[in-house]
Amino acid sequence: MGVRAPLTITEVTSLRFPVCGAEGSPAPAERLLGKTSRMMPAVGLLRIDHVGVAVPDLDAALAFYAETFGLHAVHQETNEEQGVREAMLAVGPDGSGPRVQLLAPMSPDSAIAKFLDRSGPGLQQLAYTVADVAATSAALRARGLRLLYDEPRRGTAGSLINFVHPKDAGGVLVELVQPA
Ligand code: V0V
C-alpha cells in the first residue's frame, strides 16, 4: 500500500469536504439529521501563529516577560489602524513555534483599551496561520460566522489579517494571519 505525500498548502486550502455527506454517499450525520447535502470549502488553519495578550504598558510587560519567563521580543511595531503598540516574543531554543504577542493600547477608544477596561490584562486573542486569509474568511462565512472585516487588513510584519467575532467562536477572539 502506497503512502501519500503530505498535502501542500495549496492542496490544503483547495480541499472541500462534505458537511453532511457527499452527493450519493450520505455521511452518518446526514442520515441522522436528514440535512441537505452541500460541500464546504476547507477552512485551512495551518498552525497556531500566536496568542495575543493585552497589557496596559508595553515596556513594563517586555521587562516582566524577559525577567520572569526569559522571553524576548523578536519584532516590535506600532499599528496605527489597530491602535496598538505590539511586540512578538519567541518561545523555545529555535523560536520557530507559536509566539506570544504583547498588545498595548495607543488610545482609550482602541480595541485593546476596551478589552483592558472590561476584562483587565490577559489573553485577548488566539491567532492561526493561514495560507490565504480571504479564502479562510470565506470558508468561515459559509459556516455562518461573522468576520470583522469585509477585506483583510494589515497585521504584524506586513501580514494580512482578519478576525472572527468572539461571540461566534465560543467566546474566543480568533485571528487569521496570512504571513507576508
Ligand atoms: C470583546 N468580547 C470578547 C473580546 N472582546 N470576548 C472574548 N475575547 C475578546 N477579545 C466580548 C465582550 O465581552 C462582549 O460580550 C461582546 O464580545 C461584544 O463586545 P463589544 O462591546 O462589541 O466589544 P468591543 O467594542 O470591545 O469589540 C469587540 C471586538 C473588537 C472583538 C469587535 O475588540 C475588535 O474589533 N477586535 C479586532 C481587532 C483587535 O482586537 N485589534 C487589536 C489587536 P458580552 O458582554 O456581550 O457578553 S491587533 C493585532 O492582533 C495585530 C495587529 C496582529 O496580530 O497583527
Here the CATH topology of the largest domain equals 2,3-Dihydroxybiphenyl 1,2-Dioxygenase, domain 1
Q: What does the overall shape look like?
A: globular
CATH architecture descriptor name of the largest domain: Roll
Ligands: ligand V0V
Number of domains: 2
The helix/strand series, from N terminus to C terminus, equals: HEEEHEEHEEEHEHEEE
Largest sheet: number of strands, sense, barrel closure: 8 strands, mixed
Task: Please identify the top-level CATH class of the largest domain.
Answer: Alpha Beta
Instruction: Average the pLDDT over all residues and give the rounded result.
Output: 87
Radius of gyration: 19 Å
Quickly give the structural class. Answer: alpha+beta
What is the percent of helical residues? 10-25%
Strand percent estimate:
35-45%
Instruction: Count all strands and give the number.
Output: 12
- The strands making up the biggest β-sheet line up spatially as 6-7-8-5-9-12-11-10
- Terminal CA distance reads 39 Å
Q: What's the name of the CATH homologous superfamily of the largest domain?
A: 2,3-Dihydroxybiphenyl 1,2-Dioxygenase, domain 1
Query: What's the helix count?
Result: 5
Low-confidence runs = 17-37
What do you see in this structure?
It is a single chain. The chain is of the alpha+beta class. The protein has 2 domains: 9-41, no CATH class; 45-178, 2,3-Dihydroxybiphenyl 1,2-Dioxygenase, domain 1 (Roll), CATH 3.10.180.10. It is built from 5 helices and 12 strands. The protein has helices at 9-14, 28-33, 58-69, 111-119, 133-142, and strands spanning 16-18, 21-22, 25-26, 39-41, 45-54, 72-79, 84-90, 99-105, 122-130, 153-154, 160-164, 174-178. The strands form 3 sheets. It has an 8-stranded mixed sheet, sandwiched between helices. Strands 1-4 form a two-stranded antiparallel sheet. A hairpin with a 5-residue loop joins strand 10 and strand 11 (160-164). It is globular and about 55 Å long. The chain starts with 8 loop residues before the first helix and ends with a strand. Ligand V0V is lined by residues 52, 79, 82, 84, 101, 103, 111-112, 114-115, 118, 124-125, 127, 148, 155-156, 159, 161, 163, 166-167, 171, 173, 175.
